[in-house]
Design goal:
A hairpin with a 2-residue loop joins strand 12 and strand 13. 20% of the residues lie in helices and 31% in strands.
Length: 385
């Protein structure tokens, strides 16, 4: 299953965009389209996105997510500095534990929503979404007066997601991983190649992330997982927009950016504004909490024929003839047999059951504000399976 020499060139934009350690393997295994995320190529197309969705929810998929770069924070003051970046209380975070965190600027705008991994008392990773967190962190460090080192290490994650992912993981790396708890990780030596394996992922399904700590072994790791996992139901794939919207999982740059704050997103559970520790944006977040917000992040069900693909623009939302917001992400869910969307709308138009109009790419559609997530609202598949 070899790619022809120079086959990646038809996807390449030049040296300013980096390949991942898995790019060639993904191409060999059927990737037909790539996007750019964190200045790297990410496979976005393995053919039919609906089949990719069913592969994920019925069996398992392997995704190249090396674009989830790690911002590594080490040094004597690493714990204090990491708390300076995070509005969530990290004081009880244990070595081997992951936490979902929101990073904000001094005005409370969202910079990123990474997964934090605590590798040691003085060693942290922020596994980031699509923004230049390392530059922001280095800027904060300049004036923090703390003894820390901030780097981007040679770490490249893969996502192994779906109901068969646990059996595949154990077949690939050992039965000791079967009892790995949700949002926990272990370090693992795979024939001399260092890995970090976490029970996390961007799918709302049972799943794992495998963080390769030696990029030269990327091709070998991919082929090992496919060789072991193929007979157990593993498919090469890409992160599923259908499943992540079903799960109301946020996508940075699509559903949020610096113009949006965590209270508007309904993510105030991730904010610990009364802890003694200071952090960037604390005063702004307290002010927003006290004043309240004028818009909300909601789920919508859209009328009409199944949407083709996803939205490339933020579709306007209207209530009683007045503009009230915009759709951030939209897709047709074959499982739910309905068009579902995420949107930011005025508070007055955000109540469940409110009827709205959306100017979609193919014309106007009726919409109703609906509970989110649209499927498995308690996230039992990911957390308790």
């Amino acid at each position: 299953m070899a790619a022809s020499p120079g086959a990646f060139a038809r996807h390449s934009f030049g040296t300013q965009v980096r390949r991942s350690p898995y790019s060639e393997a993904a191409l060999r295994w059927g990737a037909t389209g790539f996007s750019v995320y964190n200045h790297m190529y990410i496979p976005r197309d393995f053919g039919d996105q609906v089949q990719n969705f069913w592969n994920l929810v019925d069996e398992a998929i392997l995704c190249d997510v090396a674009v989830e770069r790690q911002v590594e924070i080490t040094g004597p003051d690493a714990a204090e500095f990491t708390q300076l970046l995070c509005p969530r209380d990290l004081s009880t975070c244990e070595v081997g534990q992951c936490k979902y965190v929101i990073l904000v600027d001094a005005d409370g705008g969202v910079i990123n929503d990474p997964i934090l991994l605590k590798l040691a008392e003085d060693h942290f990773w922020l596994s980031i979404a699509d923004s230049d967190v390392i530059l922001w962190a280095k800027g904060v460090a300049v004036h923090a007066g703390l003894d820390v080192t901030i780097t981007e290490p040679d770490v490249s994650p893969l996502q192994l997601q779906g109901p068969k992912s646990r059996d595949i993981l154990c077949a690939a790396f050992g039965e000791h991983l079967r009892d790995l708890r949700y949002y926990r990780f272990v370090e693992h030596d795979w024939d001399g190649v260092p890995l970090v394996i976490s029970r996390t992922g961007w799918s709302s399904e049972l799943g794992y992330e495998i963080f390769l700590r030696d990029g030269t072994a990327g091709d070998r790791l991919w082929e090992h997982l496919m060789a072991v996992g193929g007979p157990l139901g593993l498919h090469p794939g890409h992160t599923s927009s259908i499943r992540r919207i079903e799960g109301a999982m946020l996508s940075y740059q699509a559903d949020m950016d610096l113009s949006v704050n965590p209270f508007e997103l309904g993510m105030d559970r991730l904010l610990d504004l009364d802890i003694e520790a200071d952090f960037v944006g604390k005063a702004a977040l307290r002010r927003i909490r006290d004043e309240g917000v004028s818009r909300r992040f909601v789920g919508l069900v859209l009328d009409g024929a199944p949407l083709e693909g996803s939205n490339d623009d933020r579709w306007p939302v209207v209530h009683d003839g007045e503009p009230v917001g915009y759709v951030t992400s939209a897709v047709y869910s074959p499982r739910l047999d309905r068009n579902i969307a995420l949107a930011i709308v005025a508070d007055a138009a955000s109540a469940i059951g409110t009827t709205l109009q959306v100017t979609a790419g193919d014309g106007s559609r009726g919409a109703v504000v609906s509970p989110k997530p649209f499927h498995d609202p308690k996230k039992r598949l990911a957390a308790t399976t």
